[in-house]
Design a protein that fits this description.
Layout: H1 4-13, E1 18-19, H2 42-56, E2 61-65, H3 74-83, E3 87-92, H4 111-131, E4 135-139, E5 143-144, H5 152-167, E6 175-179, E7 189-190, H6 195-203, E8 209-214, H7 224-234, E9 237-242, H8 259-271, E10 282-285, H9 294-313, H10 317-325, H11 329-340, H12 345-354, H13 361-366, H14 370-377
Parallel strand pairs: 1-2, 2-3, 3-4, 4-6, 6-8, 8-9, 9-10
Antiparallel strand pairs: 5-7
Helix pairs in contact: 1-9, 2-9, 4-5, 7-8, 8-9, 10-11
This protein binds D-allose and zinc ion (ZN) (2 copies).
């Protein structure tokens, strides 16, 4: 097994982008539970996200959601983020909350609706010029609830045409990442339901269009690490939306439901070059913290990714390849499992301390007084969250 010392250069490079919406109030369709100190503005969300980076060194950028994080001056918002030690990252579009999008957006049969959705993405790209963002993330709730409701084939052509119009607006250094999801809120068919559809659509656009893989967006039992291996092999894995699920798109803390799956995903990321210095793959959380404290929830999340990444980096690839070559099934599996069963937390704590970071980020935040401070200070105002 590789030594911990040998993997620290890769760990040093790890960066996990935080979603602004993780810090706002969010919830399921049943209820949104508010918590004291919840941000009321994009600036307060960014200040909270900066606490995660301060205590872990793992989260240097914050993704925005438009219009939830709409401000008059995005350059000023970027300066605010920089003053807090972080930068702005992915711009996430939103065509899933307006009345006009009841029957879809970029895939809708109504050309006027498609034009509105395309214009929204043009606005997002304009914002990207001001925030310095590389990625435009497109997730569509588009789909139908009943067989026959709409022409599912024509919707693919509508989507393709809409994406061409958006792609043409991208700057030279900008990318479009198209996220898929197998169901919800549409229940009969979703217009971008799987990695294959996203791959087909982005491949038709060009090299600046790639797939976004949300780990909560697959049917139970899906071998997600196979999709990771395939998209890396095809050069079309643009980004992850990390979270974990027990049943659907639960948006729970990544690794909480199945740390072994996260380990296997990171093992394929590493095998496929996704952690190399020149890797185009972006790693982001897409989570909501409905019953747990939000900032600690995000700290726990990035630590979970770091821990499973470290374990996956411990895999002795030479020993694994030899065992595979020799058809030593149990030997090969043992190489894999030896790495997975290695508790890397003590080594990570020491490593953090050696870099001037808290050995225990959760404890450091809990005793920092920050949570108590915002709970006392942020009284009144609209507590940001879904649709805020
Ligand atoms: C929706 O299920 C997708 O995961 C989106 O990436 C994300 O949750 C949304 O854009 C933010 O609410
Ligand atoms: Zn997502
Ligand atoms: Zn999702």
């Amino acid at each position: 097994m590789n030594s911990f010392t040998s993997i620290t250069p890769m760990l040093e490079r790890q960066a996990i982008e935080l979603p602004s919406w993780a810090f706002g109030n969010s919830g399921t369709r049943f209820r949104v539970f508010g918590t004291p100190g919840t941000p009321r503005t994009p600036q307060e969300k960014i200040a909270d996200a900066a606490q995660v980076h301060k205590h872990t060194g793992l989260a240097p950028t914050v993704a925005l959601h438009i219009p939830w994080d709409k401000v008059d001056d995005y350059a000023a918002l970027r300066s605010f983020a920089n003053e807090h030690g972080v930068d702005l990252g992915t711009i996430n579009s939103n065509t899933f909350q307006d009345e006009e999008y009841k029957f879809g957006s970029l895939a809708a049969s109504d050309p006027a609706v498609r034009r509105r959705a395309i214009d929204h993405h043009r606005e997002c790209i304009e914002i990207m010029h001001q925030t310095g963002s590389r990625d435009l993330k497109i997730w569509l709730a588009d789909g139908t609830n009943y067989p026959g409701q709409d022409d599912i084939r024509r919707r693919q052509d509508n989507l393709a045409d809409s994406l061409v119009a958006i792609y043409a607006e991208l700057g030279d250094e900008q990318r479009l990442v198209l996220e898929y999801k197998f169901f919800e809120p549409a229940f009969y068919h979703t217009d971008v339901p799987d990695w294959g559809t996203s791959y087909v659509q982005v491949s038709a656009l060009g090299e600046k269009a790639l797939v976004c893989l949300d780990t909560g967006h697959h049917a139970p039992g899906t071998n997600i690490e196979f999709i990771v291996a395939q998209l890396l092999r095809l050069g079309k894995l643009g980004s992850f939306d990390f979270n974990s699920r027990f049943y659907a798109d639960d948006d729970l803390i990544v690794g909480a439901a199945d740390p072994f799956q996260l380990f296997r995903i990171m093992a394929e990321v590493i095998r496929g070059g996704g952690m190399d210095a020149d890797s185009p793959v972006a790693f982001m959380l897409d989570q909501c913290h409905n019953v747990e404290a939000k900032i600690p929830g995000q700290i726990r999340s990035v630590l979970n990714v770091q821990e499973m990444t470290a374990r996956a980096l411990l895999i002795d690839r030479d020993a694994l390849e030899l065992a595979q070559f020799e058809k030593d099934v149990l030997g090969a599996n043992a190489v894999y499992m030896d790495a997975f069963y290695t508790d890397v937390r003590p080594a990570l704590s020491e490593w953090r301390a050696s870099r001037g970071l808290p050995a225990d980020p959760m404890e450091a935040f809990a005793t920092s007084g920050y949570q108590e401070g915002i709970a006392a200070q942020r009284v009144g105002g609209t507590q940001a969250g879904w649709g805020a």
